[in-house]
UniProtKB/TrEMBL annotation:
Catalytic activity from the UniProt record: N-acetyl-L-glutamate 5-semialdehyde + phosphate + NADP(+) = N-acetyl-L-glutamyl 5-phosphate + NADPH + H(+)
Name listed for the protein in its UniProt record: N-acetyl-gamma-glutamyl-phosphate reductase
Associated pathway: Amino-acid biosynthesis; L-arginine biosynthesis; N(2)-acetyl-L-ornithine from L-glutamate: step 3/4
Gene (name only): argC1
Active-site residues per Swiss-Prot or TrEMBL entry: 160
Length: 355
C-alpha cells in the first residue's frame, strides 16, 4: 500500500482522476490542466478507455495539455506507479468495489461521490448500500468549516446540494439563532444528475419541476454535517427541484428565530461565520433582487454566495454556487491545495462566466 507523504517545496504532485469521463471528472481535468503544481498522470474511464480526452470532452480539445492524453481502464493505474492524489469521480456505488485498487497506488483519495459520507449505519445502508457492504473510514470535510484538512488518507467531500445547504444553515445553528425545524428547497441544474442521466432535453427545457420532495439522500448528510460543526442537528425537511439550466444550485432555507434574536444578531452571525473565507461570500446588505445570490454571479467560479433576510421571527437564508466547481471539482482542488500547503485559490476561478 502506498505511503502518505508531503511533497517537497516547489515539487509538483502526481494526480489521477478516477472516473474522468463524467461532468465532474471533465471539470477536474480542466482545472488541473492549468494548475501549476499538478502533474496529471492518469485518467480512468472504463467505457471510454482508449479515447482521447478531447473527443469525450470537446470543450477541452483546444487546450494544448490534452494533446495525446487518453483515458485508460482503472486496471492500468498500477502501470504508472504511485500517485500523490486520486480524485474519485465515479458514479455513486462504484468506488467501494475498486477502493483497494485505488489505495494501493494513491497516497491520498479525495472522493467526490456520495459513498462513505454517512456515519449512521442504518442511513448508510438505506442510501449507499455498497458502502455499507465494503466499509472504509473516510473523513468528511467542508473546507470553510474546519481548521485544517484531516490527516487521514481518505477524505470525502460534501455533495453539491448538501454543501450549499450547509453554508446557508451553519451560521443559524452555530450561535444558535433558530428553532430546530427548518424547511429547505434546493434547485439544481441538469449536470447535477450526471452525464448518463436518462432525462430528455425536451422534458427539461423551458420547464421547472419537482425532483424529490421527501427522502433525498442529502438530507441525513446535511443533518450530520451541521450537527458535527455546531453541536445542534436541524429537524430538516429537504426538497429538491430541477431547473432548466446546465449548471448551478440555488438553496432557500426557512427557519424561525429563537425568542430575543434580532436582525443584527443574524447579520453578525453570518459575517462571523465566513470572515476571511475566500470562497464563501456573504451579501451583507441586499436591498434589491439582484443583490441576493444568483446563478449568474457564481456559475463558472469556485465561489458560493450567501444572503439572509429577517422579518419578525422569520428568517430566510439563500445560497448559490456552481455545482460542478464549488460543489464538486473546484472544491476538490481547493482541498488539495490546503492539504499540500499551496495557496488555497491556486488554479481556481473567482469570477463567474456570464451572461
Amino acid at each position: 500500500m502506498a505511503e502518505t507523504r508531503n511533497t517537497g517545496a516547489g515539487e509538483k504532485i502526481k494526480v489521477a482522476v478516477i472516473g474522468a469521463s463524467g461532468y465532474s471528472g471533465g471539470e477536474l481535468i480542466r482545472l488541473l490542466l492549468d494548475h501549476p503544481m499538478v502533474e496529471l498522470t492518469f485518467l480512468s474511464a472504463e467505457r471510454n478507455a482508449g479515447s482521447i480526452v478531447g473527443a469525450v470532452h470537446p470543450w477541452l480539445r483546444n487546450h494544448p495539455g490534452v494533446t495525446g492524453l487518453k483515458f485508460r481502464p482503472l486496471a492500468e493505474l498500477s502501470d504508472v506507479g504511485p500517485v500523490d492524489v486520486a480524485f474519485a469521480c465515479l458514479p455513486t456505488g462504484a468506488l467501494p468495489g475498486v477502493l483497494p485498487q485505488v489505495t494501493e497506488q494513491a497516497k491520498r483519495v479525495f472522493n467526490l461521490a456520495g459513498d462513505y459520507r454517512l456515519r449512521d449505519e442504518a442511513e448508510l445502508r438505506e442510501h449507499y448500500p455498497r458502502s455499507a457492504e465494503n466499509p472504509a473510514k473516510f473523513d468528511y470535510f467542508v473546507p470553510e468549516l474546519a481548521a485544517s484538512v484531516p490527516e487521514g488518507r481518505l477524505i470525502n467531500l460534501p455533495g453539491c446540494m448538501a454543501v450549499t445547504t450547509i453554508y446557508a444553515l451553519y451560521p443559524l445553528f452555530a450561535a444558535p439563532l433558530v428553532r430546530p425545524q427548518v424547511v429547505v428547497d434546493a434547485k439544481t441544474g441538469s449536470t447535477g444528475a450526471g452525464r448518463t442521466a436518462g432525462e430528455h432535453h425536451a422534458e427539461r427545457a423551458g420547464n421547472f419541476r419537482v425532483h424529490k420532495l421527501h427522502g433525498h439522500r442529502h438530507t441525513p448528510e446535511i443533518r450530520q454535517a451541521v450537527a458535527e460543526v455546531t453541536g445542534s442537528a436541524p429537524e430538516l425537511h429537504f426538497s429538491t427541484f430541477s431547473l432548466d439550466v446546465p449548471r448551478g444550485i440555488m438553496v432557500t432555507a426557512y427557519a424561525t428565530l429563537l425568542p430575543g434574536v434580532s436582525t443584527l444578531d443574524v447579520k453578525r452571525a453570518f459575517g462571523k461565520a465566513y470572515v476571511g473565507k475566500r470562497f464563501v461570500r456573504v451579501r451583507t446588505t441586499p436591498r434589491h433582487p439582484q443583490d441576493f445570490p444568483m446563478l449568474k454571479a457564481v456559475v463558472g467560479s469556485n465561489v458560493a454566495e450567501i444572503a439572509v433576510s429577517v422579518r419578525g421571527e422569520r428568517v430566510v437564508a439563500v445560497a448559490a454556487l456552481d455545482n460542478l466547481i464549488k460543489g464538486a471539482a473546484g472544491q476538490a482542488v481547493q482541498v488539495m491545495n490546503l492539504a499540500y500547503g499551496f495557496d488555497e485559490a491556486l488554479g481556481l476561478p473567482l469570477t463567474a462566466s456570464a451572461p
